[in-house]
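Contributing: when you submit paired examples, paste them exactly as shown. First protein:
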Amino acid sequence: MKLAALLAATAAMALASPAAAQMRALNDPVTPHPDPESLFTSDDPQENRNAQAALHIMRELLQCNQWDRAGEWLTDRYIQHNPMAASGLEGVVTYFTEVAQVERVDDCGELTSPIVEVVAEDDMVVVLIQREVPYADNPDETYTTTWFDAWRFVDGKADVHWDPATLPTRPAPAPAASAPQDEQAARAEIESLMWRYVRAADTLDADAYASVFTPDGSFNSTQGHEALRAMIEGMAEGQEQRRAEGTLNGKMYHVMANQTIEFVNPDHARVHYYWQTMFAGNDLANPPRIAAGGRGVDDVVRVDGEWLIQSRNVVPTEG
């Protein structure tokens, strides 16, 4: 049958391993249809109903992420053969809305996926889709191949789903962190980074403070160099006003204690610590006081050979 031949050919393309010597694709380009929605039809009433339901899945669910409507086109038991999503209507909705965290598009419009062919036969619908893949040795260059989604329908709703997805392959272990001398040097650089951080915070030097973060680095919800500078400048203005009013005395000091550095990989580490913000007293009438304290977890990364703070979280939810 035509459907069986298409499934067999597409599965072979998805699973075949190219020869190691083959560096460029030899196939003809995979070309999408100019009017993909016109493909989701059949002269048979049942097959046409299933094809139209597949169109809604492709357009309203997969393109526009209207997963609150999934029950219109998926059965409650929805058996899933994609290894990254659980079976059941609730499972697939959870995957897209909570794991993938897709954003809903209210005004859906026409289907824009590069559909190559749609085959509706009996209770099955198979959708072939152009897939553009970058070359491993030059991501700026790409070739085309074919993805497929296949569904079995029951009473106009998709009940079983197949595609050629696989689990992510395990990344190769990073060798650099295994060298003790390299890790020791990295620890020293990270400790210097944290010292520069607290000195910039204590002196309210906005430029120095921002410079210890990556361009998209964050202190809790404050993200980016401009926002970080503004945060420190606002602190400086506030402290100046409180000192003028006589409600704030002594210099500010940040204390990081019980610090430990956990390497995620050679260019990414996680710093765990306890912290205190304190103000030194001027005299016996104004003794030192602790303004705040807690636990922190910072992610630091090495960018062009320099360790910088990617995120500083002084109110972690766990622990």
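Second protein:
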Amino acid sequence: MELVKVKAEHRDLLWNVNQKYLYEMTNFYPDELDTSGNLSYGYFDAYFTDPKRKAFLLYDGGALIGFAMIHPYSHFGMTADHVLAEFTVFPAYRRKRLATAAAELLFAAFKGRWEIKYNEKNLAAKALWNSVTERYRPEAVRLNDTETVLSFCVR
């Protein structure tokens, strides 16, 4: 498993895989396609201009299996070192513990206070994040009617 930091030359690749992920998330959020057939992601450009935002491509055995996007902007206006904005392992690579391995790589690379948000209707994400963070004893806080944020510290 390898995390590859997204650079300017990866912009189109990240855009393309993020669009596929956003489309999958329409199962949980009522987003609509724009006139170009894309889903809006208002912070996309910031991952190439804001040095506090980081994106990673996830590779396993040379195959691109997903991506992760993090930033330090808390959902609660509190101090957070790392907020997981987006994370996916593509469907063909799921159920192989690769998401767990990728999450553990992120936690090993980025110590500190984390926040991870998931939609309560996304049962796979809920199970993944509750399992992966269990050893950190996260505090689970309902952000709204459909979303929960896990807050925890990785030392």
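If you have annotations for the second protein, write them as plain sentences, like these:
The chain has one domain: 2-154.
Residues 11-25 form the longest helix (15 residues).
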